[in-house]
Amino acid sequence: xxxxTNISSVDGRYAKLVGETLSPFVSECGLIRYRVLVECxxxxxxxxxxxxxxxxxxxxxxxxDRIADVSETDAEIVKKxxxxxxEGILATRxxxxxxxxxxxxxxxGTSLESKSxxxxxxxxxxxxxxxxxxxxxxxxxxxxxGPEVEKIIGELTKFSDAHAGLAMLARTxxxxxxxxxxxxxxxxxxxxxxxxxAVLKNTRIQAKLNGATGNxxxxxxxxxxxxxxxxxxxxxxxxxVNRTYALEANLYTTQIECHDSYVALFDSLRHINTILxxxxxxxxxxxxxxxxVQRPKEGEVGSSTMPHKVNPIDFENSEGNLGVANxxxxxxxxxxxxxxxxxxxxxxxxxxxxGLALAHSLIGYRxxxxxxxxxxxxxxxxxxxxxxxxxxLAEAIQTVLRREGQTGAYEKLKDLTRGASLTLxxxxxxxxxxxxxxxxxxxLIALSxxxxxxxxxxxxxx
Length: 462
Prior knowledge:
Blueprint: H1 15-26, H2 28-47, H3 58-68, H4 72-83, H5 95-107, H6 125-162, E1 167-172, E2 175-181, H7 182-201, E3 205-207, H8 217-222, H9 228-237, E4 247-249, H10 260-289, E5 292-294, H11 313-335, H12 346-351, H13 354-372, E6 375-377, H14 379-387, H15 394-403, H16 409-417, H17 424-432, H18 438-445, H19 456-461
Parallel strand pairs: 3-4
Antiparallel strand pairs: 1-2, 5-6
Helix pairs in contact: 1-2, 1-6, 1-13, 2-3, 2-4, 2-5, 2-6, 4-5, 6-7, 6-13, 7-10, 10-11, 10-13, 11-13, 15-16
């Protein structure tokens, strides 16, 4: 199918931007691969229990590893087993049962054929599914999304360092306010994202392996001498080798794992996305004011009728995609922790949209990075804008007057500056008229908007 005929923009317009990165994890093929991996690892784990008497040779373990290395052709076979039948197997209309039959088919004619009934032993489909989704999320965030967020932090830090001392007019409530520096404002976003990424990395994704209603009923009745709770903990932990976003066994579930840790993970992503939406909007304003300039790219068109336009489309695109991702993340928070009694299936179709949320996030990150790669700061425009608002010194002057014990200091500066259009000379003339010691007067006269930035540069460079 051509990308032009796909319904989703993720698989259409943006396929080249994110498809190659995310497809191995969040596609249907990726989900099948994780399911097969869980089943093969489960058989290997069972073989490590002496009481079961099903030990595997090294070659048999390697065979299971090869089966778990699912190709696209293998995934197509699994899908055929599910939807239309394959080589004598009638259509299961059940995705996990199709995986079980696929593995058993691979074991035919091998030394493991006699042990094929241990595949999916005592499990409900959700035992396989929830671990598969946990692995999917862990890998996708670690290998696809996380590195892009790290790049954003790095780029913001570069801008922060480069413009640490560039004084700029701040705006609170959209009005002129106490000066800051361009670099410091970039540093604020870098640190906010850095903190949220740390929270994301500390999220342990919970998974369960405990049967049809969460009590290991089938396992216990078959082999009561085995501690199946400890087995489940060991089994889930075996996936954590070299894994940043680790899995953790949840021993307290119904038929389904409760998805609370999924919500925590997506909430952290949503928080990162929301911070970046704010950054995109600020960049849009800086570009609109001419403080940030975009380098035009040859051949690109900003408007079909206005030839001069260089639109901030990368930041706008990023904002829109992050918003779509967040809408899905918010739905996960409302939907996934709820399941009727011991199990309903309404979460299944929702989980299948995880790839969309991750893809729109990834598009947002990459478009933001593209935008950052096209811009530079117009230092003269930033400085001119600040110099045009000497009234921002009113805070400094009234604070020093308070220090000197002058009564009504705030009110005096309010009467002078509120709603007025002033020059720096007007401010200095006002200071000359104040009954102040000469040293204090000189201190205030020496003030300028560009020098009134406090620790901003220090913060930017920290």
